[in-house]
């Protein structure tokens, strides 16, 4: 089964909590704090696996989570870092943030990897909060939370040449005679329902990869037929071979077919429309005379397409010449990665702990992720810890903001379940 898109949930590990510990050994009555830091949370890393060809694995498993970091321990023991989770994908996979649909990474080369969810930072143990005036801190930092997000994986085949054209014009037959690929071939529309790849090789040319893209028809860019599902697979191709049925065996005009397919390319991505094209006038063995081909070639040439080949995939007429010209053109086109515009590029937000302040009667309520983290860090029932708590509120600017809002001596300040009276 060929699967070329997948949606999965990735979650990195939480950082381990810092330890609150004091050295207690015989003959050392005042050993001081010795709580170690928590370990880093594991990250989720997407990496290229050259032997994979589809995203089928992600059809059966949707959630991927890395390990949490271990908590710190006494005797300045650091917690163990959480193990990173590696997710293998085929070469040519594009990673998107599902919510914004922006591109996070393009994994187009062997060895490419991308950290899609970074593990949380470990919290500091109480030994890190020891100062000359605070010699026995009874608090430590909790670990930072990990990241979790839904992402979309898109496989865009790594082919040098893409075969495009209406259904039943002979694309699969052409691929089968120039490579060892064995696509399904039959005389009805949409015989090919998944892309096929083949390596093309002839004496005297550099081999290249050719992809047969399932039939693109009029309206493909809007989702008609199969073309919309697989148009993405020609985005990486450097050269397109546009196959038309020059014999008009199904009653369609070859030139009209040519114009319609190019219009779909333009609607989907204007860069595909501008890509170099070779025109392969197939099924020439079914022509009564060459007049049909010459008229077609003349019309296409006037549009700027000079490479027009009269071929028959069934009899192999003109096929070698078509392949040699394709190899020649490929040698002049450098390999480039997909261009990602600034608008399409995903920019991760910095992890920031925020807060809001609102007033209810004479009580000022401070809430938000900053408050949650601070209260998890301190023991408000312990004097040293409480002094540190007030120092953080002052350094963060919360005290100044409260005064700007008109707080007076004796007014209550509430942070979650903890309340205290404000004093200047």
From TrEMBL:
<comment type="subunit">
    <text>Monomer.</text>
</comment>
<feature type="binding site">
    <location>
        <begin position="212"/>
        <end position="215"/>
    </location>
    <ligand>
        <name>GTP</name>
    </ligand>
</feature>
<dbReference type="InterPro" id="IPR015349">
    <property type="entry name" value="OCT_dom"/>
</dbReference>
<dbReference type="InterPro" id="IPR006073">
    <property type="entry name" value="GTP-bd"/>
</dbReference>
<keyword id="KW-0342">GTP-binding</keyword>
<protein>
    <recommendedName>
        <fullName>GTPase Obg</fullName>
        <ecNumber>3.6.5.-</ecNumber>
    </recommendedName>
</protein>
<keyword id="KW-0479">Metal-binding</keyword>
<comment type="function">
    <text>An essential GTPase which binds GTP, GDP and possibly (p)ppGpp with moderate affinity, with high nucleotide exchange rates and a fairly low GTP hydrolysis rate. Plays a role in control of the cell cycle, stress response, ribosome biogenesis and in those bacteria that undergo differentiation, in morphogenesis control.</text>
</comment>
<feature type="binding site">
    <location>
        <position position="172"/>
    </location>
    <ligand>
        <name>Mg(2+)</name>
    </ligand>
</feature>
<dbReference type="InterPro" id="IPR006169">
    <property type="entry name" value="GTP1_OBG_dom"/>
</dbReference>
<dbReference type="Pfam" id="PF01018">
    <property type="entry name" value="GTP1_OBG"/>
</dbReference>
<comment type="similarity">
    <text>Belongs to the TRAFAC class OBG-HflX-like GTPase superfamily. OBG GTPase family.</text>
</comment>
<feature type="binding site">
    <location>
        <position position="192"/>
    </location>
    <ligand>
        <name>Mg(2+)</name>
    </ligand>
</feature>
<keyword id="KW-0547">Nucleotide-binding</keyword>
<dbReference type="InterPro" id="IPR014100">
    <property type="entry name" value="GTP-bd_Obg/CgtA"/>
</dbReference>
<feature type="binding site">
    <location>
        <begin position="312"/>
        <end position="314"/>
    </location>
    <ligand>
        <name>GTP</name>
    </ligand>
</feature>
<dbReference type="InterPro" id="IPR031167">
    <property type="entry name" value="G_OBG"/>
</dbReference>
<keyword id="KW-0963">Cytoplasm</keyword>
<keyword id="KW-0378">Hydrolase</keyword>
<dbReference type="Pfam" id="PF09269">
    <property type="entry name" value="DUF1967"/>
</dbReference>
<keyword id="KW-0460">Magnesium</keyword>
<dbReference type="Pfam" id="PF01926">
    <property type="entry name" value="MMR_HSR1"/>
</dbReference>
<dbReference type="InterPro" id="IPR027417">
    <property type="entry name" value="P-loop_NTPase"/>
</dbReference>
<dbReference type="InterPro" id="IPR005225">
    <property type="entry name" value="Small_GTP-bd"/>
</dbReference>
<feature type="binding site">
    <location>
        <begin position="190"/>
        <end position="194"/>
    </location>
    <ligand>
        <name>GTP</name>
    </ligand>
</feature>
<feature type="domain" description="Obg">
    <location>
        <begin position="1"/>
        <end position="158"/>
    </location>
</feature>
<feature type="binding site">
    <location>
        <begin position="282"/>
        <end position="285"/>
    </location>
    <ligand>
        <name>GTP</name>
    </ligand>
</feature>
<feature type="domain" description="OBG-type G">
    <location>
        <begin position="159"/>
        <end position="331"/>
    </location>
</feature>
<dbReference type="InterPro" id="IPR036346">
    <property type="entry name" value="GTP-bd_prot_GTP1/OBG_C_sf"/>
</dbReference>
<dbReference type="InterPro" id="IPR006074">
    <property type="entry name" value="GTP1-OBG_CS"/>
</dbReference>
<dbReference type="InterPro" id="IPR036726">
    <property type="entry name" value="GTP1_OBG_dom_sf"/>
</dbReference>
<dbReference type="InterPro" id="IPR045086">
    <property type="entry name" value="OBG_GTPase"/>
</dbReference>
<feature type="binding site">
    <location>
        <begin position="165"/>
        <end position="172"/>
    </location>
    <ligand>
        <name>GTP</name>
    </ligand>
</feature>
<feature type="domain" description="OCT">
    <location>
        <begin position="345"/>
        <end position="424"/>
    </location>
</feature>
């Amino acid at each position: 089964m060929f699967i070329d898109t997948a949606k999965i949930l990735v979650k990195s590990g939480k950082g381990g909590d810092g330890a609150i510990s004091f050295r207690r050994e015989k003959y050392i009555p005042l050993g001081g704090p010795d709580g170690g830091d928590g370990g880093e949370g594991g990250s989720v890393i997407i990496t290229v696996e050259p032997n994979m060809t589809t995203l089928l694995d992600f059809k059966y498993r949707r959630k991927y989570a890395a390990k949490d970091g271990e908590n710190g321990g006494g005797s300045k023991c650091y917690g163990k870092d959480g193990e990173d989770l590696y997710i293998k994908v085929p070469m040519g996979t594009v990673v998107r943030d599902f919510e914004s649909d922006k591109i996070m990474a393009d994994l187009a080369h062997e060895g490419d990897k991308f950290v899609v969810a970074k593990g949380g930072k470990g919290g500091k143990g109480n030994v890190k909060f020891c100062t000359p005036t605070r010699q026995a801190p009874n608090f430590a930092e909790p670990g930072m939370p990990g990241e979790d997000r839904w992402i979309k994986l898109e496989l865009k085949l790594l082919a040098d040449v893409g075969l495009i054209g209406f259904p039943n014009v002979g694309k699969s037959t052409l691929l089968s005679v120039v490579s060892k690929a064995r696509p399904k071939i039959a005389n009805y529309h949409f015989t090919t329902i998944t892309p096929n790849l083949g390596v093309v090789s002839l004496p005297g040319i550099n081999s290249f990869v050719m992809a047969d893209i399932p039939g693109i028809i009029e309206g493909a860019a809007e989702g008609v037929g199969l073309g919309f599902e697989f148009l993405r697979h020609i985005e990486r191709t450097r050269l397109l071979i546009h196959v038309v049925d020059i014999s008009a065996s199904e009653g369609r005009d070859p030139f009209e077919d040519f114009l319609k397919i190019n219009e779909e390319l333009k609607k989907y991505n204007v860069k595909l429309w501008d890509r170099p094209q070779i025109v392969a006038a197939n099924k020439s063995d079914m022509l009564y005379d060459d007049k049909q081909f010459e008229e077609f070639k003349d019309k296409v040439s006037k549009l700027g397409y000079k490479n027009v080949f009269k071929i028959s995939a069934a009899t192999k007429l003109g096929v070698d010449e078509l392949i040699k010209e394709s190899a020649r053109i490929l040698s002049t086109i450098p390999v480039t990665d997909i261009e990602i515009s600034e608008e399409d590029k995903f920019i991760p937000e910095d992890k920031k702990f925020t807060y809001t302040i609102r007033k209810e009667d004479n009580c000022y309520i401070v809430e938000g992720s900053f408050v949650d983290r601070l209260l998890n860090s301190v023991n408000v029932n312990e004097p040293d810890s409480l002094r540190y708590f007030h120092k953080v509120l002052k350094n963060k600017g919360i005290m100044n903001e409260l005064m700007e809002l008109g707080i007076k001596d004796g007014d209550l300040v509430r942070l979650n379940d903890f309340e205290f009276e404000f004093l200047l």
